[in-house]
Amino acid sequence: MIRKLLVLIPVLVLFAIALAFGAQNNQVVFVDFFVVQRDVSVATLVALFVGAGFLFGVISMIASQWRLRLRVRRLRKQVQQLNKTRQGS
Fold first, then answer.
1. Using CA atoms, how far apart are residues 58 and 55, in angstroms rounded to an integer?
2. What distance in Å separates the CA atoms of residue 46 and residue 43, rounded to the nearest whole number?
3. Where are the domains of the chain?
4. What is the pTM for the complete model shown?
5. What CA–CA distance (Å, rounded) separates 19 from 36?
6. Which residue spans within 1-89 are E strands per DSSP?
7. Is the model's pLDDT at 77 over the cut of 90?
8. Residue 22: what are its φ and ψ, rounded to 5°?
9. Contact indicator for 46, 18 with CB cutoff of 8 Å
10. How far apart are CA 76 and CA 69, in angstroms?
11. Angle 46-49-55 (CA atoms, 0-180°, nearest 5)?
12. Cβ–Cβ under 8 Å, residues 45 and 25
C-alpha cells in the first residue's frame, strides 16, 4: 500500500503542475506536424504531450510486467520439473 502511494503521489503532483502550467498559458501557437498544420493553445499541447507520455509509460510498464510474469511462470515450471525428478529418484 505504501509503495503504491509513493508512486501515485509524484504522478499526481506532476499532473497538477502540468495542469497549472496549461491553465496559465492560454496563448495560441502554430504547430506544424508532418501532415497537419494548426493553431493550438499551449494548454492543449501540454495536455496532449503529458497524456502521450503517460500512455507511453503505462504501455512500457505493462509490457515489462508481462515479460517478467512470463519468465516467472517458466521458472516455476522448471522448479516443479526439478522437484518431480528429485522425488522420482
1. 5
2. 5
3. 2-88
4. 0.66
5. 25
6. 28-32, 37-41
7. yes
8. -65, -35
9. yes
10. 10
11. 135
12. no
Cβ neighbours, 10 Å, residue 47: 15
- The SS3 of residue 34 is coil
Q: CA–CA separation, 47 vs 69, rounded Å?
A: 32
- Enter the C-alpha cell of residue 1: 500500500
Alpha carbon distance 60, 25 (integer Å):
30
Residue 89's pLDDT is 63
**Both ends of the chain: CA-CA distance in Å?**
44
Instruction: Report helix, strand or coil for 42.
Output: helix
pLDDT of residue 43: 83
Cα–Cα distance measured from residue 23 to residue 34, given in angstroms and rounded to the nearest whole number: 27
Question: C-alpha cell of 63?
Answer: 509490457
Could you tell me the pLDDT band of residue 76, with boundaries at 50, 70 and 90? very high
N residues, the chain = 89
